[in-house]
């Protein structure tokens, strides 16, 4: 059955790989699964046809036969479970990889998204200058802990897994802020993720959409 995902017709990041469809593209590339992409505009995302796929009117969505999924964590988990390459065969190692998937989305990403909102949506508020350092400090707390845990290892728990895929994707959102540069261990970790051929294919595919002439 053909896999179809949705993506921005024109991504707010201009094709820098920060839109969440890149995570799904990357997962599919890692397990060598072909897929099609249906591009949607911001207006179409709020219309009934798309809301039937994603009740919150966002991207990406994942369609495979009668199966429809939304939320990148759920989609990545489904792909990893269905196809070999993103979850270890050993049961305990598999459970740890899944734990890191949850950690990326539930512990590390929320303060990063708060920082993005503070910079982009609240930067003109009179209290922004005072609040921004506090938000940045909240970002640094899990980064300090993650950097210690990773140490000199290439990946979070042995071989590359879906946990690394989501963690690298989350950390990439920090690059515009400069905070990632404060953590050489994590910056090198992200660079290893970006160097993977599957990531490069996913990034190039998303960039092509955003640089195509309209």
Structure commentary:
With about 210 residues, the chain is α+β, with helices and mostly antiparallel strands. It has two domains: about 5-85 and about 200-210, Glutaredoxin, CATH 3.40.30; about 90-195, Glutathione S-transferase Yfyf (Class Pi), Chain A, domain 2, CATH 1.20.1050. It is built from eight helices and four strands. A four-stranded mixed β-sheet has the order 2-1-3-4, with helices on one face. α1 packs antiparallel against α6 (about 160-170), α1 (about 20-30) packs across α8 and α4 (about 90-120) packs parallel to α6 (about 160-170).
Q: Largest sheet, order of strands side by side?
A: 2-1-3-4
Judging from the principal axes of the Cα atoms, what is the shape?
globular
Average residue-wise pLDDT: 93
Structural domain tally: 2
The amount of helix comes to 40-55%
- Biggest pleated sheet: 4 strands, mixed
Give the total of beta strands. Answer: 4
Radius of gyration, rounded? 17 Å
> How do the helices and strands follow one another from N- to C-terminus?
EHEHEEHHHHHH
CATH topology of the largest domain: Glutathione S-transferase Yfyf (Class Pi), Chain A, domain 2
Fraction in beta strands: 5-15%
CATH architecture of the largest domain, by name, is Up-down Bundle
